[in-house]
Amino acid sequence: MRKIHFILILMLLLPGFACKKNNPAPVAMPYASFTIKGVNHTYHSYSKFSKDLCVSSTYCGQFYYDSDNQELNNIKIGIPGDPIVGHIYKSGDYRFDVFYLNETGVRYDLTVSPMQVVFSVWEGQGGWGKGTFSGWLRSSNNDSIEITNGYFQGKIWTTFQ
Predict the structure, then answer these.
(1) Phi and psi of 76, rounded to 5°?
(2) Most buried by CB count within 10 Å: which residue of 8, 47, 61, 100?
(3) C-alpha to C-alpha distances, 19 to 15, 22, 110, nearest whole angstrom
(4) Containing H/E element for 157?
(5) What is the pTM of this model?
(6) Is residue 106 a contact partner of residue 137, using CB atoms and an 8 Å limit?
(7) Are 135 and 115 in contact (CB under 8 A)?
């Protein structure tokens, strides 16, 4: 009799387990987020971290507010050599490059003031590069901006290895 009760209970519970939906893990999306003068900026369009289109750096990635208008609202992060997780890349490092183009097309570049980038994740080809950045950039008119709370995550595409 116990076996029959046990089998009946199992038969009643199994359909409930079988119909339970598994929620898929959220898909990570590439983006960069940062604050300038108290205003948060988030850019979801990007170029993958790669070696092939970096003029002055070994690896670079660029993030855009609008991929159809890449001459405005974008930020580029370029670093020397293969990224090392936890290493602080900073102003003055050979082949380290960061620039920002604002909504009016004014370009801000590295100066002697501090700017830094730190990778928290570097998974190699096809994986993710993630990290933080903050510091000062200057325009050709000597206007300076401070970037705070910078975060980025983008895919890696290493065509030349």
Answers:
(1) -120, 140
(2) 61
(3) 6, 9, 56
(4) strand 144-157
(5) 0.77
(6) no
(7) yes
Q: What type of residue sits at position 127?
A: G
Which token pair is 130? 């993630």
Nearest residue to 34 (alpha-carbon basis) of 154, 147, 160, 159 = 147
Long-range contacts of range 118-121, CB-CB < 8 Å, 24 or more positions apart? 118/86, 118/87, 118/88, 118/89, 119/79, 119/83, 119/84, 119/85, 119/86, 119/87, 120/85, 120/86, 121/85, 121/153
Taking the C-alpha atoms of residue 32 and residue 75, their distance in angstroms, rounded to an integer, is: 8
E strand intervals along 6-141: 31-36, 39-43, 45-50, 59-64, 74-79, 88-90, 97-101, 107-122, 128-139
CA distance 58 to 92: 15
**Which residue type sits at 46?**
Y
